[in-house]
Amino acid sequence: MAEQSSVLSALQKLVGRDVIYTDEFEVEKGMLQRFAMAIGDPNPIYYDEELAKAAGYSGVVAPPTFLFEWNHHKHGPLSREVRASIFSGLKRVPPSVRGINEYEVVQPVRPGDIIKTQARVTQVYEKQGKSGKLVFVICETTYINQRQEVLGKARDTYIFLPEKGE
Amino acid sequence: MAIRVGPYFEEVEVGSELPALSREIKLEQLAMYAAVCWDFEPAHYDSGTAQKQGFRAAYADGPMITALLGQVATNWAGPSGRLRKLTVTYRVMVFPGDKLVCGGKVTGKRREADRHLVECEVWAENQDGQRAVFGTAIVELPGKSRKG
After folding, report:
1. pLDDT-derived band at B82, boundaries 50, 70, 90
2. Is B105 touching A (CB cutoff 8 A)?
3. A77: in domain
4. Interface contact flag, B85 A103, Cβ < 8 Å
5. Cβ neighbours for B35, distance < 8 A, ≥ 6 positions apart
6. Which pLDDT tens digit goes with each residue over B36-62?
7. Domains observed in chain B
8. In a domain, A166, yes or no
């Protein structure tokens, strides 16, 4: 129990801190096609320039969830580095799972895009679960391209789980 | 035209179902997804790590399943449709060997400014009948009025 409340206080330190990260790589066609393959999506708008144009795009686009998944976890407000640092006083880094993802797609990601993420932890709170106290963390992220156009927004809830048997 | 044509806004009936997508989840896919997201959390492809965290095996990163729900919506909407919003709740973890049926159902229609929006309930149900991931998708469809 004592440990769980220190998980809460460690996470509360993140509230309101802006984390801005610009990808060092631009999005390439092969990158978004590999993503489409990994999710098993054969939709031709991801692979075929002409069919993508026929569908009203300026060329192949990324599957809609690519934006929210590509490379930002590593640099966001809950990255593994951040976790290692804020939980350094605990016996170990507590496991977390996803609770809710709210994805808003404003425009599709295209090859050549450089994605910038502006993220912030907006809320941290504790709730009694079946196996102990759970800590909920809400992150809000805006995704912007190199032309400063908004590509999408996400509001994500992560749940930090109590240690089993402690 | 190799591309499938989707429905017009006016043709969609509230209560109608979206064609389902069936998938058996494999460890190989978990590893592929981790690689394309550059997300090397070992618990997504290494059961030893996942077990140390208290899970029974390596588990799917939730958004991999969300991507399947996105596909249910985009397959149905066709090339002129646009997925605008996808909100999901993760309830049951997904492990290799799970057989998922991803489905959807139209729950509402509305016009917002010049946009024709359809709201759908979407879900991924596992072999035990549990909705592992579920939520709503908002899809913009072309209207007949604009196309003439």
Report:
1. very high
2. no
3. yes
4. yes
5. A34, A38
6. 998 888 999 999 999 988 899 999 999
7. 9-25+60-147 (3.10.129.10)
8. no
Q: Which letter does DSSP use for residue B58 in this model?
A: -
pLDDT at A118 over 50: yes
Partners of residue B135 in chain A, C-beta under 8 Å = 100
Cα separation, A7 vs A76, whole angstroms: 18
Determine the residue among B33, B37, B83 to mutate to test chain A binding: the one whose Cβ has the most chain A Cβ atoms within 10 Å: B37
Per-position DSSP letters for chain A, written without gaps between them: -HHHHHHHHHHHTTBT-EEEEE-SS---HHHHHHHHHHTT---GGGT-HHHHHHTTSSS----TTHHHHSS-GGGSTT-HHHHHHHTTTSSSPPPEEEEEEEEEESS---TT---EEEEEEEEEEEEEETTEEEEEEEEEEEEE-TTS-EEEEEEEEEEEPPPTT-
Q: Where are the alpha helices (DSSP H) in chain B?
A: 27-36, 47-52, 62-77, 144-147
Q: A165 in a domain, yes or no?
A: no
Chain A closest CA to B114's CA: distance in Å? 15
A-B Cβ pairs (cutoff 8 Å, strict): 109
pTM of the model: 0.93
Q: Kindly state the tokens that stand for A7.
A: 């998980």
Query: How many domains would you assign to chain A?
Result: 1
Say if A6 falls within a structural domain.
Answer: yes
- Chain B residues near residue A73 by CB distance under 8 angstroms: 37, 39
Q: How far is B68 from chain A (nearest CA, A)?
A: 7
CATH for A42: 3.10.129.10
